[in-house]
Amino acid sequence: MSAIESVLQEHRVFNPPEALVAKAAISGMDAYLKLTAEAERDYEGFWSRLAREQLAWHTPFTKGLDESNAPFYKWFEDGTLNVSYNCLDRNVEAGLGERTAIVFEADDGTVTRVTYQDLLARVCKLANGLRSLGVKKGDRVVIYMPMSIEGIVAMQACARIGATHSVVFGGFSSKSLHERVVDAGAVVVLTADEQVRGGKVLPLKSIVDEALALEGTEAVRHVVVYRRTGGNVAYQAGRDIDLATLVASQSTTCEPEWVGAEHPLFILYTSGSTGKPKGVQHSTGGYLLWAALTMRWSFDIKPTDVFWCTADIGWVTGHTYIAYGPTAVGATQVVFEGVPTYPNAGRFWDMIQKHKVTIFYTAPTAIRSLIKASDADPKVAPKNYDLSSLRILGTVGEPINPEAWVWYHTEVGGGRCPVIDTFWQTETGGHVITPLPGVTPLVPGSCTLPLPGIAAAIVDEAGGDVANGQGGILVIKRPWPSMIRTIWNDPERFKKSYFPEELGGRLYLAGDGAVRDAERGYFTIMGRIDDVLNVAGHRMGTMEIESALVANPIVAEAAVVGRPDDTTGEAICAFVVLKQTRPSGEDATRIANELRAWVAREIGPIAKPKDIRFGENLPKTRSGKIMRRLLRSLAKGEAITQDVSTLENPAILEQLGEAK
Ligand code: WT7
């Protein structure tokens, strides 16, 4: 049975616990339906009301939505505000200065606490420091930092002075970093000397040096270095400066830069169906509204909660549910530097117990790998820890299979915590389809219903509605405040990718297939319909990996597809034709490992193909098109049922069946 069939045949329903419903921000299905009806009645008024209630505006806005240049929608455009003011000063002014903002746990278990007052002072110092380096409103700053208080401070400091940040995940290679620095036109790069993960020390600053040695980076005037390990790294005089030195003499107050609601808060690069990553541009007002609102709606955050999102600030989850959402609502959150399996696979459970975490948000891949680990070693199973502080669980990033859902619900949540399966994307800014803890009866494997005001629907290839029970293309029919504004430097690609003419040019195309069940209209996501893979919740373009492979001088041709994987959801499978004769035996293993290392250098270790298969050729149609469907079957190890009569050399199918 396929994963999707198993979800559609899923009849277990978990109703929200009564005690939770009673106190929830949205309490009961009627309250949800009331909000949905309000949005239906007066869409612009609905979002305007929430934007006024949730955010502190420096200048109030007079108009909610401007659709005059669709699909370049604008929200709350004539209002001004500052994100860091909203996340920090506002909380301090409300008397929460002494509240813990961040409980930081380092890889080695060292814990550091920061109050809202401290966080504000640190953000102001760095904001002043960046201003002293000449950074001003609208400049782009690249942040290539490990999980740290400093990383969050860096993002908030950029927001404070109106600089647009672009965080690059610390696992990306110098080439990937270079590509992003150049596309963003960054003037400053913030980094660390080194990063520590699972007891291992990995470089950061030297990778920045490599990236900046490449062409097109002349705009970068300074590199600011957070001393994480104190390791020995090279400094370029005049360009590089220690973060500690930069902030040492700076004031702990800093006047925020009041920016328009549409001012770009950040650009975050993500993979699309071509080789070049897309710089997803987000706004200030609409984005922050979503970060705050979904903390309240989807996670039901309360002043007594301890929130923990295990994502990295290099991904959008770490933006919305670490750097901005929790602070926007004055919450206490745990921030973690390390990995779930170090010093052992009980690390998450140990941290939940130690910090009395109440809301825990992680990825299906992590859950699946921890299920395996606790099967193998019962000592690290969740039942050995006191997890009674938990009240809400969340997942994100990829479909969660019902078995993993039920384990999470039972073994981690003790059967009492709703599992909030949040569907969203880098482009949506925050949750769009998700259960609400005090509202939604849960069905394992389904992300259930759209948030109030989100016009999610399933359509066919011409944009026509599809009946419940039938699969189709997931779209959102109306703009919403936290949606992507454009692709940085490429408005045409924005229109083509997300508002394609084939669907009429007005529907937001998510890029996923989905189905709604006949009984409740619940959504289940079936995975990407474009050439994008989801490996361990990380989005990877097949074209990016193919380009990396063919850039190797020994490679003649390469095609990359995904195949199902028990732990990572999908795994990368590369079919490779070498310029030399097809290798076999140990030669093939050695070359496959060389190619993996090559891809790690070109893109980053997350893009390394799990399987590499060598052939003398790739299966192609008469017109020379690679038969990807056939490759997907080969990757899965399925019997070939497709018509292969047009293949020039059917023997290659046998060759390609062997994985290295
Ligand atoms: C893609 C977006 C959302 C932040 C992290 C990933 C997949 C995301 C779910 C979910 C099924 C999901 C989709 C989506 N996805 N959440 N709850 N159930 N699939 O953001 O890197 O932009 O990836 O992740 O395929 O399109 P992203």
Structural description of this entry:
Keywords: Acetylation, ATP-binding, Ligase, Magnesium, Metal-binding, Nucleotide-binding. Its cofactor is Mg(2+). With 660 residues, this protein is of the alpha/beta class. The protein folds into two domains: 486 residues, Rossmann fold; 121 residues, 2-Layer Sandwich (GMP Synthetase, Chain A, domain 3), CATH 3.30.300.30. It is 33% helix and 21% strand. It contains 20 helices and 30 strands. A seven-stranded mixed sheet has the order 5-4-17-16-18-19-20, sandwiched between helices. α5 runs parallel beside α12 and α14 packs across α15. The longest helix has 18 residues. The chain is globular and about 75 Å long. The protein starts with a helix and ends with a helix. The structure holds 5'-O-[(S)-butoxy(hydroxy)phosphoryl]adenosine. The site of 5'-O-[(S)-butoxy(hydroxy)phosphoryl]adenosine has 23 residues, from α12, β20, β24 and β25. 5'-O-[(S)-butoxy(hydroxy)phosphoryl]adenosine binds next to α12, β20, β24 and β25.
Strand content: 15-25%
Which CATH class of the largest domain applies here? Alpha Beta
Number of helices: 20
Lateral strand order in the biggest sheet: 5-4-17-16-18-19-20
Mean pLDDT: 96
What's the arrangement of secondary structure elements?
Blueprint: H1 3-8, H2 18-23, H3 29-41, H4 43-54, E1 65-66, E2 74-75, E3 80-81, H5 83-96, E4 100-105, E5 111-115, H6 116-132, E6 140-144, H7 149-161, E7 164-167, H8 174-184, E8 188-192, E9 194-197, E10 200-203, H9 205-213, E11 222-226, E12 240-242, H10 243-248, E13 259-260, E14 266-270, E15 278-282, H11 285-297, E16 306-309, H12 316-328, E17 332-336, H13 347-355, E18 359-362, H14 364-376, E19 392-396, H15 402-412, E20 419-422, E21 456-459, E22 472-476, E23 486-487, H16 491-498, E24 508-516, E25 523-528, E26 532-535, E27 538-541, H17 542-550, E28 555-565, E29 569-578, H18 585-602, E30 611-614, H19 628-636, H20 651-656
Parallel strand pairs: 4-17, 6-7, 6-8, 8-11, 11-12, 16-17, 16-18, 18-19, 19-20, 29-30
Antiparallel strand pairs: 1-2, 3-13, 4-5, 9-10, 14-15, 15-23, 21-22, 22-24, 24-25, 26-27, 28-29
5'-O-[(S)-butoxy(hydroxy)phosphoryl]adenosine is lined by residues 270, 315-317, 396-399, 421-426, 447, 510-512, 525, 527-528, 534, 539.
